[in-house]
Design brief:
PduO/GlcC-like (chains A, B, C, D); alpha+beta; 5-stranded antiparallel sheet; 5 helices; Heme-binding protein (chains A, B, C, D); homotetramer; Beta-Lactamase; GlcG_carb_metab_protein (chains A, B, C, D)
């Protein structure tokens, strides 16, 4: 398994924030979690609201929890809301099931971490996460 | 950033309660939180029920969490209930997503705190919060 | 039982803060809880640190929990620390067992609420709580 | 009050990690919290163990909670362990009361955030935090 180093994590964040600037998005917050769901790096842009670490982490944690980007979790809300409720409960309340939590895969497709972004629309958040992951030479999986 | 002083917080509460009296509302409870979500001042009128501090704080905390008045959160309940559920979970159960949590902005539009009111209808609660904030010379943002 | 009204609660806070000013204490935070442990009123002076609502409430809640001012709880720490630990646990983590949580009694000695103060030394916090309660014509019981 | 921007937060982290390298310390984790206790930025060096975000945040959060660097909290353990236990409980388990949580003050001595570092000895963690804060032109207060 490739390691998701701090250097790569910072490259992901820098590229994601550059994409947000290019698209003229609202202030973003970006977290990188390792494969075990533990934070490697985080940045919250000036003007972003108070609870953005928790929201960004909730998207990324949810993706790692089920091995699918949080877009997949979001789709579950239509058909199986009780699954999401149970998942949130057994996670100890750590999951936010909307797009913007993107798995990071290495060349052999192994999950080596996840990126969570919040601040603009969920779709735009996800675009920035994918851009950041690919800028670091890794594979993004939005779900 | 302008500071939300105790003196201004008390002015907000006094004006909000006066508005409630003018409109002949039920007993109100009013909290003022600073920009970080920590209480500056609180008053619960006689006859108000037991858990009003938590409800008032939950409205104001939710507004600060996402940088939008709690009326915006309330609207999410129609389209994305699973987002609210996730938000509540990652906040540690600190959010009440109905109108009556109003952001306090300074002249440069920076968020310097939030007011939460509960006791009458959510719409009336919000009216009193807005009245209180404006009476203190600040800008109210209901969402 | 006499009711601990909002008017009396505010009188307690005002007198307590005046005492703090007279003694030239650090910024204080004062909470008044009703007999059920639920907040009636709270004020945090400018310059007081972030978590003062929780600390002030923890002192007052502890006093109500055992029917003795929090000075009594503080004394237990010497002889029975495991009692305090158990008490904290069964309260759901709501108790701070140092002086400054003072019971409010009516003329018949019934407990009608508690005042919690934090910001200066625990002894000075307690002096201000007692001063505030007596200024409202009620009886203070520091433990 | 001066804002603790993301740019300044990153400058603090970079300088703190450079100090760690200069002193040949173990892998460090550094968090910067704003004045309300919410994360602005975080970095965990490669080789650092799993729960370092929580430990670093616990030091910084404790400092903000009481308005004193976490070295002060650490000293309370000798004289008033039951105070620390109560403080931890009412914080919801968010405080780690050992050195390495350092307040960030602006020119007027207002608290604008806190830095928490973990990974080496608590004393060395604190040295890196102070170095980082001063490199950003701000004032460090270790407690």
């Amino acid at each position: 398994m490739t390691d998701l180093t701090l250097a790569k994590s910072l490259k992901i964040i820098t590229a994601a924030l550059a994409k947000g600037k290019e698209l003229d998005l609202k202030p973003l917050s970006v977290v990188v979690l390792d494969a075990g769901g533990h934070p490697k790096a985080f940045q919250r842009q000036d003007g972003a609201s108070m609870m953005r670490f928790e929201i960004a982490s909730g998207k990324a944690y949810g993706a790692l929890a089920v091995g699918a980007g949080s877009r997949w979790l979001n789709a579950q809300a239509e058909t199986r809301p009780h699954f999401l409720e149970g998942l949130s409960a057994v996670s100890g309340g750590k999951i936010v099931a909307v797009p913007g939590g993107v798995l990071v895969r290495d060349r052999k497709s192994a999950i080596i971490g996840a990126v969570g972004i919040t601040g603009d629309s969920s779709d735009n958040d996800e675009i920035c996460a994918i851009t950041g992951i690919e800028a670091a030479g890794l594979t993004a999986d939005g779900g």
